[in-house]
Every structure is written in C-alpha cells, then in structure tokens.
Amino acid sequence: MSPAAPAPLAMTMGEPAGIGGEIALMAWLRRGERGLPPFFLIDDPARLSALAAAIGLAVPVRAVADPAEAAAVFPTALPVLPQPLSAPVAAGRPDPPNGGAVIAAIDRAIDLCRAGAAAAMVTLPIQKSSLYAAGFRHPGHTEYLAERGGAAGAPVMMLVGGGLRVVPVTIHIPLREVATRLTAADIVAAGRTTAVGLARDFGIERPRLAVAALNPHAGESGTIGREEIDIVAPAVAALQAEGIAATGPHPADTLFHAGARPRHDAVLCMYHDQALIPLKTLDFAGGVNVTLGLPFIRTSPDHGTALDIAGTGRADPESLIQAVALAGALAGRRAAA
What we know:
single chain, alpha/beta, Isopropylmalate Dehydrogenase, 39% helix
C-alpha cells in the first residue's frame, strides 16, 4: 500500500490591502521552477481573481471546499479555501472591518494544522492596527499563535536567510529597555527552544548555539557594562549544564562574518536589530521567519504589508517563496520523524 500524499500547506490571507495577495499569486506562478509544495490560500477567491487581472498575472483561482482538494488543483490553479471579507478592498488602504476575516483565516489555519489537514501554515503579513480594531490583543502573530495553538511555553522567533539563523531574545521593545528587561531565564528559555527546534525540524543532531553579548566587546570584563557577567554568562552556563552546545557571550561584531558563520548553527541575539541587521544585510529579499515552540510548523516572509506598493505588481515574492519551501521541508522532516 503506497503512503498517503502529504497534506498541503495552509496560507493565511494577511492584510488584504497589502502585498500578501499578489506575492501569493506570484509564488504560485513560480511553483514549478522553484519546486514548491502544494499550498492553498485562505482568502476571498473573487478578490484574488480581480487582483490577478488588475496586475496582469495569468493565475486561475479555484475555490475548494476542503484542503484535501488542494493538491489535485494546485498544478493548474491556485486553490483557495473561501474566507469572506466584510468590506471591499482598496490597495494600500486597510479597512478595519476586514480585520475579523484576517483573524478568522489565522484561526482556520491553526485548526487545520492541529487536525492534520494542513502540513504547516505560512502566514502573510498582517496590519496590526486593523486587527486591534477587530479585538486582537496580542503584540503580533507569534504570541497569538502560541496562545491559540496551545504552545507549552513561550515561542521563539527565528529568522533564517543568507546562511544565518538568528533568534532575538528580546523583540519589540525600546532599545533603552533591553538592558533592564533582559534576563538569564529568557536567554535559557530561548536557547532551549531553539536547540529542540533545530534538532527536530532542521535535522541538526547537536545544535551549536552562539550567544551574543549585549555590550560592545562583550563588556570588556565589566568596564563597558556588567550584563555579560551578571546575565549572559550565567545563561550560557545554564544551557551548557543542560547538555546544550552553547558558547558565549561573544562580541556581536565578530559573529556574522563569513569565517564565523560555519562555527554555529544559530545565534541568540539580545535584541531585535542585533539579529535582523546582519540577516537582512546578507539576504534582504529572502529572509524567512520561523516560529519555534509551536505544536505545528509556521513560517512567514520576513517583511511587512508594504502598503506603499500594494496593488502595483512591484512586490518581490522571494521571501514568501522561501517561506513556502522551508515550511514544506520542515513538515516533511517532522512527518518522517
């Protein structure tokens, strides 16, 4: 008896007034040349058909009643699981009434992943201001997915691209607050979740984690700050005590050059830009956001809604293409394990 075909990937609509729809259409057009696994979009089929016509993309859109239909449809049309919108969409102008549909698409993808009807979810960029008007009370996708998806602990945002995997321990907080809010416990939790994710989903038997310092020159023995002595070094020691191959604190300015990158499998960074600047310098167009610590696989393009170019057909789909490819690879590895 031949094994069942893998389930398709679920892609959420994201902000309808942003570039999500058009990069999804472009990704489908490049499915063959890039070897993308089958995916379906949770969105409004009529909106997508109109968008394809408006920007000159020859993409047939076909509504499906069930994700199980997507694999058969995918070679000849973009499968769409219908999610109705509450208001007409104007490119570049988010309409708060549509925030409920965006949240509903995310919820449906979570449920499909947890039921095994979707192998993974790929989320298109959201406009949080519209979601807040619809009752969304989370800082972003990651936190909502953790709560709604039943994650056992705090999830970890890992960015992948340009030969790098980076994890910001603190994320969307003011730089002035990083030193006071950074804790050894947070570093240990991020390191633990990263090590488990790299082993389970990326097939790295013994992941090597480099832990970045917060201060220049790793604090120079306390003369440029004590965070390395009081927070980062104890966290590294705790990770090592758990059998995790962690090293540091390392000066951040020596972690990302070509000679250093092969020495580690991921870098734990102390704040947002410490992680994102090197990754986007090396691979601005192709970076992928992976959420570790969820009971299902989630990836997303590493960019926002780009309202300024929405509806023009000028958006670059590369990050989404990479997100779809990576989600498929991770789902396949997890299924095999």
